[in-house]
Design brief:
The complex is a heterotrimer of chains A (about 100), B (about 500) and C (about 500). Chain A has about 100 residues and is an alpha+beta fold. Chain A is built from four helices and three strands; from the N terminus they run αααβαββ. Chain A has a domain at about 1-50: Histone, subunit A (Orthogonal Bundle), CATH 1.10.20. Chain A has helices at about 10-20, 30-40, 45-50, 75-80; strands at about 65, 85-90, 90-95. Chain A has a two-stranded antiparallel sheet. In chain A, helix 1 (about 10-20) packs across helix 2 (about 30-40). The longest helix of chain A is centred in the middle third of the chain and has 15 residues, at about 30-40. Chain B has about 500 residues and is of the alpha/beta class. Chain B has a single domain, classed as Alpha-Beta Complex (Amidase signature (AS) enzymes), CATH 3.90.1300.10. Helix content of chain B is about 40%, strand content about 10%. Chain B has helices at about 1-5, 10-20, 25-40, 50-65, 110-115, 160-165, 180-190, 220-230, 250-255, 275-290, 310-325, 345-355, 360-370, 380-400, 425-430, 435-440, 470-490, and strands at about 45-50, 75-80, 120-125, 170-175, 190-195, 215-220, 265, 295-300, 405-410, 445-450, 460-465. Chain C contains 16 helices and 15 strands. Chain C has helices at about 10-20, 70-80, 190-210, 250-270, 315-325, 330-340, 345-350, 355-365, 370-385, 400-410, 415-425, 430-440, 445-460, 460-470, 475-485, 495-505, and strands spanning about 20-30, 65-70, 85, 95, 105-110, 115-125, 130-145, 150-155, 165-170, 175-180, 220-230, 240-245, 275-280, 285-295, 305. In chain C, helix 3 (about 190-210) runs antiparallel to helix 4 and helix 11 (about 415-425) packs across helix 12. Classes of the chains: A alpha+beta (about 100), B alpha/beta (about 500), C alpha+beta (about 500).
């Protein structure tokens, strides 16, 4: 069995930021503990697969699946916006954006 | 009349509707009544579409009256797992984050069901975003196993399996990423099939792990599953991973039900330590029956299966962390915390996701985020994808020795609600026998093979076949089912306590 | 954060005396396909908000992408035209980060397996030693999808900072993009800004020639990010680079690179360090300002897109596409230049104004090359600039220009009238012949009225008449001018002169 990786509160906070989940500070230790246990269990994947084993990302060996460049029907703006929490002038309304892209 | 209608198989119902012996509306009403009578206790459904169901049934009756040719499942009620979109009908995936969302489009599976005249009764409960083996991770409360309401119905598709087991619907759609059709089938005494990856379109199936997800039929008989399989399967240009090969003749295979001369492999790595005695006993008896039917039983070894669970719990969280990123409170679903201070969109996204996702979902998103991170990709995700190759090689070697492989579907019968909720790893072990098929993309079926003597709860047997050879599952499954039925003298669900 | 306070800069000649610049250019091209990269939504510019969207490009739960075959073909053709190798097997990958203009909160892009890689483009730049060719290496050209458009509401200027909230339109989300990334461009010395501009100009011509994009920088269908760094000498290791975004005209590319060099030089001279960051180019003020700092914490968690299968272009298909490529613009230009017999300088003027195809077409329709160039590179380019549109967007065709020139050749129009006809065509008054008819612009060719006007003019200025008679032919100009004025420019000045001299019995 591989050794259990250590996951700190800070690691969890960083992951939560990357995953855009606003975790309450009091839950960080709880997740750190659980993640460490799970990672310890799954780390055994490193025990078997050698360098000469290719990775499989698709279960079936399909290639070259293309769509013809032909217009299909779009949604109406009303349909497109129907599920949105906030809408203005046929656009999706969001609070101010902090980060610049 | 009502109790008769709900206990019919899908094949029988379709035939009675087609002959005019009963109307599709009568059938729909009988099932809606049953849902009204028992679902408060079972909680298989998250939403019942009474009006839509009656309208669909009425359309079938009108088509019949007009002399139109009805498709083989026309007028048969079905329960749709809440992970499939249905235009205008609430679709939550068992998550709070999607509360109130009505998709503006039909999943391909939904569209095919509608086109076939199948009557969709409503949406069934599930573990949030199909993560779990008990439906306890549903934001809307767990589903109860009709065999024992204090026990889990399996998961993630516990709602679909329970609906079928409780005679609320003869058919249901499930989705199976690591066992979410087969394991609930096993613990509810029903039939569930995960087809070959790509055999059934994933368009409109809210993705958990794209390279593992596959929709399939849930039913009470092997033939019913085959009929539903042939309605939903087939190439779909909207799903680029959809296979182009013709759908195998699964109905023909279910009717053939002949295992004479077939080589059936028992997977050595699936069924030893950690499997409940009663599960092992019923499995062994089934093997004896198959041998008696003329099958040749061989033992095969799949040495990398012990690593399947680890690989799965890296691949699934990785893909899921990305698939679930779109749930951010901008285009659909709930938005949380906008009024609290003067938050930015970044904060609102974070609050929405923290409030909208349940504990297990957050755990897996965090795990996947970690596994895909720059410094860890090779050690975790990359390695897991290699294990996947090794699992595929194991299957290839095994199928060189046997036409189909069998194992118990789940290590245990249904456990008590709450029993494993606080122990993620113990929960994950429920899928140890079903996960290899997802990693390799091959088809698998679970069917009931009796009740465990120690607890009187159903035991499932899993059949696995090579990719695209889904028909073999139905042939073997139907043969075993017929032999068991003869032994028992009645369908196994008749032994369930009445609700 | 983003202030308009100008940073200190060092004069350009001092920058290039002290530092060696290194460039890297990333160009995003929106393909002109009928539909988006991964769904069948149309791609028309300027549609009503959120009307060209579907479950796929809105990232609704359950939707799945399907690759546009024409986009793949365009990507391969671009790669071939840029002398790239074409991958025999490649995949899409997910680039994971949260941003409200990105519907899935990941961009489906290509990561370590681009469809095209390792190519080059030769560009010509005017140097002190004459025209010199620089080879710009192409690292990769890959496929990806565009984002939606965000408009910022409230606050001062519609900018992101200080806005109260934002509105998102996803019509643009999912439009196919090809990102073309150069290798580091070294050895340009002081010509770095010119090389950058020449590269994008040449690239634009190639893309236009391939017909894969409308390459309108002002509409954002061709966007350039410029990476600039300085080092003390060509054999020193690379300095820290900045990435300047939002550079949306050919002229701006040159200016932005030049500015960034002068700014970085000032920082380095003062003993400071360059921060690796994104900077924004401001067309109005001609400066860049600091944007987001690029940190190592940026972790896109790339992994192969599991909803799509790999692309393995059939080598026979690639070869067929290669054989069908249009003539390389450089070769095409050289051929036209030889046919027209014009200087490098005149040819550059045609190319830089984006008028090459228009001039060539006008000439093909029978116009003289000099006249065709005069119209397109001179008058019409000026008008396009005034209107802030591309030359091709003016409501006038090579056929119109060729027809005007034909009328001049026939003597039916003179230069001044021709200009008025062009004005009429641009004003939407119809074809050149229709404008001539409607405005009554034909040259007065009947000698009768001309002779009357000549007689009148001579009577007005008897002294001038006498001078001419006495052999001072140069004085004829004054009478011709008076006649032209009297006929409101509609006379053929040459004919007036002929008639005048005949009248007075003088010969040249």
């Amino acid at each position: 069995m591989s050794e259990t990786p250590s996951i700190s509160r800070e690691d969890v906070a960083h992951l939560a930021k990357l995953a855009r989940i606003d975790l309450p500070p009091e839950s960080l230790d709880h997740y750190a503990e659980q993640l460490a246990v799970i990672l310890g269990a799954v780390a055994q994947v490193s025990e078997v697969a050698a360098d000469d084993v290719p990775a499989t990302s698709h279960p079936l060996p399909l290639v070259n699946v293309f769509r013809e460049d032909v217009v299909r029907g779009s949604l109406t703006a009303e349909e497109a916006l129907s599920g949105a929490p906030s809408v203005e002038s046929d656009r999706f309304r969001v609070p101010r954006i902090l980060d610049e892209e | 009349m009502t109790s008769e209608l709900i206990s019919l198989t899908a094949a029988e119902t379709a035939s009675k509707v087609a002959s005019g012996e009963v109307s599709a509306v009568e059938v729909a009403n009988a099932h809606l009544d049953r849902i009204g009578a028992v679902d408060e206790r079972v909680h298989a459904f998250l939403y019942v579409d009474r009006e839509g169901a009656i309208a669909a049934a009425d359309a079938v009756d009108k088509a019949r009256a007009a002399g139109e040719q009805l498709s083989p499942l026309a007028g048969v009620p079905l329960a749709l797992k809440d992970v499939m979109t249905q235009k205008g009908i609430p679709t939550t995936c068992g998550s709070k984050i999607l509360e109130g969302w009505r998709p503006p489009y039909d999943a391909t599976v939904t569209a095919r069901l509608k086109a076939a005249g199948v009557v969709i009764l409503g949406k069934t409960n599930m573990d949030e975003f199909a993560m779990g083996s008990s439906t306890e991770h549903s934001a809307y409360g767990p589903t109860h196993n009709p065999w024992d309401l204090d026990r889990i119905p399996g998961g993630s598709g516990g709602g679909s399996a329970a609906a079928v087991a409780a005679f609320e619907a003869p058919l249901a759609i499930g989705t199976d990423t690591g066992g979410s059709i087969r394991q609930p089938a096993a613990v509810t005494g029903t039939v569930g099939v995960k087809p070959t990856y790509g055999a059934v379109s994933r368009y409109g199936l809210v993705a958990l792990a794209s390279s593992l997800d596959q929709a399939g039929p849930c039913s009470r008989t092997v033939l019913d599953a085959a009929l539903l399989h042939s309605v939903i399967a087939g190439h779909d240009p909207m799903d680029s991973t959809s296979v182009t090969d013709p759908v195998p003749d699964v109905v023909g295979a279910a009717l053939r039900a002949d295992v004479k001369g077939l080589k059936i492999g028992i997977v050595r790595e699936l069924g030893g330590e950690g499997y409940q005695a009663g599960v092992r006993q019923r499995f062994d008896e089934a093997v004896t029956i198959l041998e008696g039917l003329g099958a040749e039983i061989v033992e095969v070894s799949c040495p990398h299966f012990p690593y399947a669970l680890a690989a799965y719990y890296l691949i699934l969280p990785s893909e899921c962390s990305s698939n679930l990123a779109k749930f951010d409170g901008v285009r659909f679903g709930i938005r949380v915390g906008e009024g609290d201070g003067d938050p930015s969109i970044e904060q609102v996204m974070g609050r929405t996701r923290a409030a909208g996702f349940g504990d297990e979902t957050i755990r897996r998103i965090m795990l996947g985020t970690y596994a895909l991170s720059a410094g860890y990709y090779d050690a975790y995700y990359g390695q897991a994808q290699k294990v996947r190759t090794l699992i595929q090689r194991d299957f290839a070697a095994a199928f060189a020795q046997a036409d189909v492989l069998i194992s118990p579907t789940a290590p245990t019968t249904a456990f008590k609600l709450g029993e494993k909720l606080d122990d993620p790893l113990a929960m994950y072990l429920n899928d140890v026998a079903t996960i290899p098929a997802n990693l390799a993309g091959i088809p698998g079926m679970s069917l009931p093979v009796g009740l465990a003597p120690e607890d009187g709860l159903p035991v499932g047997l899993q059949i696995m076949a090579p990719a695209l050879a889904d028909d073999r599952l139905y042939n073997v499954g139907a043969a075993l089912e017929a032999a068991l039925l003869q032994t028992w003298g009645h369908p196994i669900l008749q032994e369930a306590p009445s609700l | 954060m983003s202030t308009s306070t100008a940073d200190a800069v060092v004069p350009y000649d001092e920058v290039v005396a002290e530092f060696d610049p290194v460039l890297g250019l990333e160009v995003h091209v929106e393909l002109g396909t009928n539909t988006k990269m991964f769904c069948g939504c149309p791609t028309e510019f300027g549609a009503e908000p959120n009307t060209q969207v579907c479950p796929v490009c809105l990232g609704l739960p359950g939707s799945m992408p399907a690759v546009n075959a024409t986009a793949v073909e365009s990507a391969i053709r671009i790669g071939l035209a840029l002398n790239c190798k074409i991958a025999t097997w490649c995949r899409f990958a997910r680039k994971n980060y949260f941003y409200p203009d990105m519907p899935k909160n990941f961009q489906t892009s290509q990561y370590d397996e681009p469809i095209c890689y390792d190519g080059y483009l030769d560009v010509d730049v005017e140097t002190d030693e004459g025209m010199k060719t620089f080879r710009v290496g192409i690292e990769r050209a890959h496929m990806e999808e565009d984002t939606g458009k965000t408009s910022h509401q409230g606050g001062a200027t519609g900018r992101i900072h200080g806005a109260d909230y934002s509105l998102v339109d996803y019509n643009r989300a999912g439009i196919p993009l090809i990102e073309i990334v150069t290798k580091t461009i070294e050895g340009t010395g002081k010509y770095a800004p010119e090389v950058a501009r020449a590269y994008v100009t040449a690239l634009r011509e190639i893309l236009r020639g391939l017909g894969v994009s409308d390459v309108k920088m002002e509409q954002g269908s061709l966007r350039c990010d410029a990476n600039v760094s300085l080092r003390p000498s060509p054999d020193a290791k690379f300095g820290t680079r900045t990435e300047t975004k939002n550079v949306n005209s050919l002229r701006s590319i040159e200016r932005a690179v030049r500015y960034e060099m002068t700014r970085q030089a000032a920082v380095l001279r003062a003993g400071g360090t360059i921060i690796q960051e994104t900077r924004h180019w401001h067309e109005d003020t001609g400066i860049t300002t600091s944007g987001r700092e690029k940190s190592d914490a940026e972790d896109y968690r790339y992994f192969p897109e599991p909803d799509l299968v790999p692309i393995a272009p059939d080598p026979a298909w690639v070869e067929k596409l290669r054989s069908e490529l249009p003539e390389n613009p450089a070769v095409y230009q050289a051929r036209l230049q030889a046919a027209w017999g014009i200087s490098d300088f005149d040819m550059m003027a045609v190319v830089r104004s984006g008028a090459l195809d228009l001039v060539a077409e006008t000439v093909a329709l029978g116009a003289d090359q000099a006249a065709a160039r005069k119209w397109w590179v001179g008058e019409l380019t000026r008008i396009a600039n005034d209107r802030a549109v591309e030359l091709t967007e003016l409501p006038i065709t090579p056929a119109d220009v060729a027809r005007v020139e034909a009328l001049v050749g026939e003597g039916a129009l003179n230069d001044k009238l021709a200009r008025q006809v062009i004005e009429g065509v641009l004003a939407g008054e119809g074809s050149p012949d229709e404008v001539v008819a409607a405005r009554g612009l034909a040259v007065v060719s009947d000698d009768g009225p001309l002779l009357e006007a000549i007689d009148a003019a001579l009577a007005e200025s008897p002294d001038v008449a006498e001078k001419i008679r006495s052999g001072k032919v140069a004085a004829a100009g004054a009478i011709v001018g008076a006649v032209m004025k009297a006929t409101r420019g509609q006379a053929d000045a040459g004919r007036v002169r002929e008639l005048l001299l005949e009248r007075l019995g003088v010969s040249e």
